[in-house]
């Protein structure tokens, strides 16, 4: 009996010790700098900053999509410009999007529900929808319905791209009903300074963008969505003062492009867009491109995309143009959605017969808005530009007219320009000079390699449904 009692006592001590260790471990694993009850305003600011940095930053913009779309090119370390990329090249968009942006915004939504503040929830839904749209535009099928909730879904399933877009349209419709300019106040909003009426416009503008993203696949759903937006009545982004953008400040919180050019000099403007701007006598050229450091006959000199390192270096650093100082300034904004883009989208919706608006007039307004965005306001200069036959709206091929001009207007917004080029199939671009894809161009991002090792079952199912995990595999929305 004595021996039995001792065994029971020892077992009890072990159990108590194990329980105590678990409690201690939980205490040890707490972040001493993390708030137990995070405030929605701090979370909102953080989510806006990290999402804007990711959208406008190196891996997803400067070192990939801006090269694919031939806004920028590389004069040094040219592998990305030649499509020599692997499954670690796009980790930033995936990891930051899911682990930080969406997780933070989900927390804002949770806190907003507890506080019964529908405006926080509405703003978070709009921002989360934007981040999800960036992810699915780039990768295709992605975790959506189970994303950002690691305690419940450690290995989230991938939703088909169609389902993601449809889900985002529902989320944005819900956000629109939650947002109330006369409702509870919010704080921490760097994009619109806590003005809910602006978020209502942005929500509708993002709905319009996504409706057109699916228009070649699901025209009736696109048309229905646009009709709902018009009926709702809050309108779209309606001036350059409404632009959705994150405005940066001084170092260390400067624009990511400015930060990169402080220490690196391996990027130049692409010859493709410089040639186009010269051909159109486009007054945005001195804004998009910097004069060459040494005098040259043309002043602005772009370089071909995808040169070998040797061929690129022979062009010379001082006789080729960097992107313009506007984009390299510390305070340059990360534009999320411009007024010009919304006007192009409205023009396309009209051209498709989704609305009764005048497509040609909206197209002209879109170009004018892009000029005005960069403080080009001379009415005669704008009228002269619009009067050129090469600029005039062509109703018989609206995709070319809108695609060519939208490509120019989206300069610097690599991810959005990349999505629109794939959807509209204009402008006509030539593959990288020494490209690694046998004369083809990238049409998507590759999933991170960590998905194969940490979420293999769901990754494998997505690849089986979507196609080979390769740069050349077209996504669902990219029909033609």
TrEMBL record:
Alphabetical UniProt keywords: Lipoprotein
InterPro entries: SusD-like_2, TPR-like_helical_dom_sf
Entry-linked PROSITE patterns: PROKAR_LIPOPROTEIN (PS51257)
Superkingdom as given in the UniProt entry: Bacteria
Pfam families per UniProt: SusD-like_2
Name of the protein: SusD/RagB family nutrient-binding outer membrane lipoprotein
